[in-house]
Design brief:
The structure is a single chain. This protein has about 400 residues and is mainly alpha-helical. It folds into two domains: about 250 residues, no CATH class; about 130 residues, no CATH class. The protein is built from 19 helices and four strands. The longest helix is centred in the first third of the chain and has 28 residues. About 35% of the residues are buried.
């Protein structure tokens, strides 16, 4: 009886204190891998196909550790991409504020999961088999209850702590950190229309999901890393599954190539610029960054009415946005500043013209090539050194 009571309290497996930490990290990491590989890259974006064995394992594991329904997760995430940074975005920190998304991301997710229109419009193609209809969907809370029992039987009362860590891992890191911090702080490799950021270049803690800006630039890519210094752990697992015959990669972000001998825009240049438009805009912003900073410093010195925050917003955000993404008040302040600098006005107008190249669906390819060549010619005739240098680089896209 005492033997039974002892094991009832301590569980079947006795570990040193650090052993329980390792167990918790391993279990939560399997959950992270299941989310990024199965829910995100496979189900939501179809960047890869999965063999039924890993597909069913991931779905079963997520049922045990999160209780999330596949259709709901995929639908809400797809809507996030379709309505990003707008009032209809289910979890944008630009709309709700970083604090709310970071700490109440799960509540925002649950609220959207009750929206039947979202599920019907964006939840297509997700599992609809017997298990989904009779177990995973109607009894989504049963799995996490079973996981609690398993943790308790194996590790005793400390197992309930491990279970609690499992339960908060995805709500905090996925619903909070990725959806919140991933649209607020970090670095940007691509100038997407949204505010997505790469939190860190090493996607280890959250399986590669930290590379959020890369994902928004090429949403359907099975690989989230893009630069040489970025590491996507989820991609490593996918390659292992592919080697074992359990996965097939369907989509990857196209590689950026340059032809250093090109001095004239042609159809190849146009296609490359359109394909890599977010990279083009990022390089444009980087090229003119110093020039814009110098112009803004001169304006501040000459005109005291421009407050520091306004000039900071112009430097870091407004010059990098299309006009349609600015509020009327922001546009008015930007116009007032631009009117005081021919250089800034030229840079901003040239950026707007460049983005319009891939938005003109009625123009023929030949017309777009001529427009791109004319853009480069005017940039090189502008007298602005940074704009001239960028134009020469733009011609080399291949």
């Amino acid at each position: 009886m005492s033997y039974f009571y002892e094991h009832f309290l301590t569980g079947l497996i006795d570990l040193p204190w650090w052993g329980y930490i390792v167990v918790a990290l391993v279990l939560t990491h399997i959950t992270i891998a299941s989310v990024t590989i199965f829910l995100h890259r496979h189900q939501s974006h179809r960047g890869l196909e999965l063999h039924p064995i890993p597909s069913h394992f991931f779905r079963f594991w997520l049922w045990l550790t999160t209780g999330m329904r596949t259709k709901e997760w995929a639908a809400i995430h797809r809507k996030h991409h379709a309505k990003v940074e707008t009032e209809d975005d289910p979890h944008s920190p630009q709309i709700y504020g970083l604090r709310k998304v970071l700490w109440e991301g799960t509540e925002l997710y649950k609220k959207e999961s009750y929206n039947r229109e979202t599920l019907e419009k964006y939840g297509y193609g997700t599992p609809d088999d017997w298990l989904e209809k009779n177990l995973y969907h109607p009894h989504n809370s049963l799995g996490i209850g079973i996981m609690a029992v398993i943790d308790f039987v194996l590790f005793g009362f400390i197992g309930l702590t491990i279970w609690a860590v499992q339960m908060i891992w995805i709500p905090f890191f996925a619903a909070g950190v990725i959806n919140g911090v991933g649209h607020y702080w970090g670095y940007r490799s691509f100038a997407c229309a949204d505010a997505s950021k790469n939190i860190v270049p090493w996607g280890i803690l959250i399986g590669g999901e930290e590379l959020h800006n890369n994902h928004h630039a090429y949403a359907s890519s099975a690989r989230l890393s893009n630069k040489w210094f970025e590491f996507d752990l989820g991609w490593m697992y996918i390659r292992i599954l592919e080697f074992l015959g359990f996965a097939q990669v369907k989509k990857l972000a196209p590689k950026i190539r340059f032809n250093l001998n090109k001095a004239q825009c042609d159809l190849e240049t146009l296609q490359a610029v359109i394909t890599h438009r977010y990279d083009v805009l990022a390089k444009f912003a980087k090229s003119v960054k110093q020039t814009c900073a110098e112009e803004l410093r001169e304006i501040k010195a000459r005109a005291a009415q421009f407050d520091r925050q306004t000039l900071k917003n112009i430097k870091k955000r407004w010059l990098q946005l299309d006009t349609k993404h600015l509020k009327a008040q922001e546009r008015a302040k930007l116009d007032e500043v631009l009117s005081r600098s021919r250089v800034l006005e030229t840079i901003y107008s040239m950026r707007q013209e460049l983005t319009s190249l891939w938005q003109r669906s009625t123009a023929s390819k030949e017309q777009l090539v001529r427009q791109l060549e004319d853009w480069c010619h005017r940039a090189e005739e502008s007298g602005i050194a940074s704009l001239q240098e960028f134009s020469r680089k733009l011609r080399r896209y291949a």
